[in-house]
Write a structure and sequence with these properties.
48% of the residues lie in helices and 15% in strands. The protein is of the alpha/beta class. α8 runs antiparallel to α10.
Length: 355
């Protein structure tokens, strides 16, 4: 009879601690192997039965997931922030691997999404582009700090322009500071060139996927936002309902209430106290939240169906900030719906009965 085995793996840069337990929770095997593809596959080949493997999300997770997927029945990449650990308990590599295997057997792990979707190249190109954007912004900030620290007003983007650069540098009379600014300008020029190259490659790759044309039909979602959306979400079918996407993007409301019931003349009665709304959920994907909030801000500032939708929210008495969040949520819903259906955008999607 083909038995079921549960394998927990505690990943490190050089080694992987493993533990194998059976259906009854009995420890069958422990081993420490090298963090290498050949060593991992040799270990898996030596374990008999139907194999279910788990390990924590981390820098090696995507590599190990794709390596193991063809060789085992199930791979669960779990969220390390939601493991049922207790403060004060013993902890080492062997114990961690055993606990992961037992938690997998009991079905208490919170999985992190990993699926082969054919978007691996786009995901890497998006990472490259976003990294270069971040690096260029950091260098720009450092340049402005140099001028502002010497009471030289440096507003706007002229301070970065090669056309006006000589004039800005003349204002830095200290040799060391002048040289530092020159180096930062050279670094900025290189980063901007690389950023443009990365953007071109990212957009070219995004055009290879059918979802790109669908998402581009939605107002305010330009080519860059669409490419990042595709890379981060990967597939709309990972979200069963729009509220799941709202929560994932940080647009879901979190409410808390207490003392919901009280005793009135000896009878338990529900208190007439409204739920306390604390705001949007904090545990979310920051990249997606940035995209939808920025797209919503663009949408309400331009003529179009989303601005009309925003105006209708204001007309009902909603606060402008709340109305912008509603626009962002509507954008997220439309992205999910159209992507699933393979349809292009039209203004009918903004009517109350639409998605």
């Amino acid at each position: 009879m083909n038995s079921i085995k549960y394998i927990g793996m505690d990943l490190h840069s050089a080694t992987i601690s493993t533990a194998v337990v059976n259906e009854a929770g009995k420890l069958n095997m422990e081993a420490t192997i090298a963090t290498e593809a050949a060593a991992v596959l040799d270990f898996i080949a030596g374990v008999q039965g139907t194999l279910h493997v788990t390990f924590e999300e981390g820098i090696h997770a995507a590599w190990l997931y794709e390596l193991l997927l063809p060789h085992v029945a199930e791979v669960v990449v779990c969220d390390p922030r939601q493991l049922p650990r207790h403060r004060g308990e013993n902890k080492n590599d062997k114990i961690d691997a055993q606990q992961l295997a037992q938690w997998l057997r009991l079905g208490v792990l919170k999985p992190v999404y990993h699926r082969p979707t054919g978007l691996r190249t786009l995901r890497e190109l998006v990472r490259s582009y976003r990294t270069l954007v971040s690096d260029a912004t950091r260098v720009m900030n450092r340049l402005k700090v140099i001028y502002r620290a010497r009471a030289i007003a440096a507003k706007g983007a002229r301070v970065y322009s090669p056309r006006y650069r000589e004039g800005w540098l003349k204002q830095l009379r200290e040799p060391g500071v002048h040289h530092r600014a020159e180096l930062l300008y050279r670094e900025l020029d290189l980063l901007l060139s690389l950023r443009q190259e990365a953007k071109k490659a990212m957009l070219a790759e995004s055009r290879k996927h059918a979802a790109q044309k669908i998402l581009l039909s939605i107002p305010t979602l330009g080519a860059v936002r669409v490419a990042v959306l595709m890379a981060v979400i990967q597939t709309p079918h990972r979200f069963r309902r729009n509220r799941k996407l709202w929560t994932y993007t940080g647009l879901g409301l979190v409410t808390r209430s207490s003392a919901n019931y009280r005793l009135v003349e000896g009878q338990l009665t529900r208190a007439r106290k409204p739920a306390l709304i604390l705001g949007l959920n904090l545990n979310h994907n920051h990249v997606l939240k940035e995209i939808f909030k920025d797209a919503a801000a663009t949408a309400v500032s331009r003529q179009g169906p989303f601005r009309e939708f925003y105006a209708r929210q204001l007309a009902t008495g909603k606060d402008p900030e709340i109305a912008r969040v509603i626009v962002a949520r509507k954008l997220a819903t439309i992205v999910l719906t159209l992507w699933k259906k393979g349809e292009r955008f039209n203004a009918e999607h903004l009517k109350p009965q639409a998605a």
